[in-house]
Amino acid sequence: MLCAGDEERGGMMGGSEAAPGTAATMGEDGGGNSGSLDTGTAPGESVSPGPTPMEASAGSGPAVDHEQTLIAAYAKLQTLQGQRRRGSARSELVPLWMNDGVLRKYMDAAKDFQLVQAANGLEYEDEEEYVRMIQEWLDRGAFVDSTDEEGYSPLILAAMNDSVEATRLLIERGANVDWQSREGATALMNASINGNQELVKLLLDAGAGVNLQDCRGFTALVWAGDYENDAVFEMLLEHGADLDLPDGQNSTALMRAAAFNHVSAVRMLLRRNAKTWLTDSLGFTALMYGAIEGHDQVVQALLEGALNGPGGRQVMLRMVNIGNNEGNTALMEAANFGHEKVVQMILDHGGDYRCVNKRGESAVDLARASGKRGVVRILIKAMVDDAERRQASAAAAKSAASADSASGAAAAPKSNS
């Protein structure tokens, strides 16, 4: 299923063109060539979000939040009340006393609808008026967790509109800080997209769940990373954001940061020992995404981070030489796309040019097939250098063995005749 408001797009990356609280107004293009990072399609079956808070507050059946229905309800109420004031016959008043409960629900729903409309903020030019209108409808008794048809609550909308004061007001009035829209969007996710540190801190201090996931499996950390909001990214990490929490395609924040060339986020995650060897649903690692795109700073950071992290060289070699679902290693991917600098980096950190994929192709085979002559030269030089080192090592070992043998013979005691 597609998350509401999303559009599929080609390329390696996805998900950023439609933020969790908007259709496409906050989008940015990721681009790319290969891989499985989310394109906006959630895996598996969708889970019904159940009734919205407005529906729950109004009893069984869907909440009335359509403007024309509410206008008609108001007109009906005014007509019946006018009949009562004019002393109409009791038989004409039956609809009023029979429908008092229904009309009260209409009136409550109207207030809730107006609160959501106010929180949308489309009619106000400044924040002061925006906050005042939200407060006015709250004071009139509107339900603080009312939602529109997409499940967006006033708090989510206030965060989307980057309003600290409106968010503070709604929290003080008891808004559910973890309410999720039908897409799974939260106020914290939208604040993270906007990069508003004060707003993010306000929500975190109010107990907002830092690891809640939307319908794609994205967290506030992923959204902050996709929009390169480093200060918010760091703040979320400090408040317990799960470094390695997979999304719907088993991608992690590290993989997305590597694919988007978000070097600072990669380094922040590596400092906290994010797992570099994890793979997504197509078997891609963060290193593969960096290698495919030719992001040399990302690749360097990943290689050094793995080497200097827990497990050291053993973990680094595991990351470097692991194959994806097609059997391609990071070296093969870099070779195929002709990224010479990245190819050399990976070779220098233990990349094995002898590895072959499931079609029996090596890195040099892929480079030749794609016409990447510079990469072919680098790989052949690596093969020659490796052969010379092995030959020199074998000669040294043979020489040492001969010397040991001669030394042993000289030291042997002479037999008495």
UniProtKB/TrEMBL annotation:
One of its GO terms (biological process) is regulation of gene expression. PROSITE patterns: ANK_REP_REGION, ANK_REPEAT. Residues 1-10 have a biased composition (Basic and acidic residues). Keywords: ANK repeat, Kinase, Repeat, Transferase. Residues 1-64, 393-417 are annotated as: Disordered. InterPro entries: Ankyrin_rpt, Ankyrin_rpt-contain_sf. The lineage of its organism: Eukaryota, Rhodophyta, Bangiophyceae, Porphyridiales, Porphyridiaceae. ANK repeats lie at residues 150-182, 183-215, 216-248, 249-281, 326-358. Pfam families: Ank (PF00023), Ank_2 (PF12796). This is Kinase D-interacting substrate. It comes from Porphyridium purpureum (Red alga). GO terms for molecular function: kinase activity.
